[in-house]
Amino acid sequence: MTYLHKSISGQAIQLPVGKVVCVGRNYVDHVKELGNEVPDNPLLFMKPATSLCDVNDPISLPSGTLGSCHNELEVAILIHSPLKGASQNECLAAIYGVGLALDLTLRDLQTKLKSKGLPWERAKAFDGACPVSGFLQIGNIPDLQSLEFSLEINQQLRQHGYTSLMIWDVASLLSQISEIFTLLPGDIVLTGTPKGVGPLYADDELSLHLHDHFSLNSRVLG
Length: 222
Fold this sequence. Notes:
With 222 residues, this protein is an alpha+beta fold. The chain contains five helices and 15 strands.
């Protein structure tokens, strides 16, 4: 199924589908969870448009012997106008809306790649690696740094985060990203994941919550 940007109510958003810019290690608890060091600058990597899929649809995990596939729940930012060398205020003005996404990660493969100093794309950028919700327009979000979000798997809490605990806040992230490469209309920025990452299994039932705003359910294909 072809991915299209949608509002949280399911209506199509008239923006092209672009790249996904991901921010690693933006929550201290997750950095410690994986035994990593807190970076001096945002750790950036990308997923292609082909990684995008609707999180409301059943999630298909990669087949074969690639090891475990982990959940990483993140607040997602949809961009509606170009950003290049932009100030923080310009970046905030360029946000269309806010959603939730799963940065699916082949953890065993990522660990192997990291140990050899190799890029992560094989573990992070495969087809379907970024299930994403619909987007709530930014006017409905009073404060980007006061959001609470969580993931339950089989009715058990797996991840729970607050954007107030980000190392780099949304405006700072977007501004720093725009200094490196241009963000275009329809691009999505994933802002980092809190602790609680872990393996997904066939038939898992998922509940994603952007507290005070929306909740949705998904499942992993059997």
